[in-house]
Amino acid sequence: MKFLCDEMLRGLGRWLRAAGYDTAIAGDGAPDRGLLRQAAAEERIVISRDRHLLEHRAAAGRVVLLTAEGTDGCAHELSARLAIDWSYRPFSRCLVCNTPLVPASVFDRAALPSTVAHLPEPLHRCPRCDRIYWEGGHARRMRARLARFATTPTDDITVEAATPTTAIERDPAARRRGRQPPSVW
Ligand SMILES: [Zn+2]
Question: What's the rounded Cα separation, in Å, for the pair 35 and 13?
Answer without folding.
Answer: 15
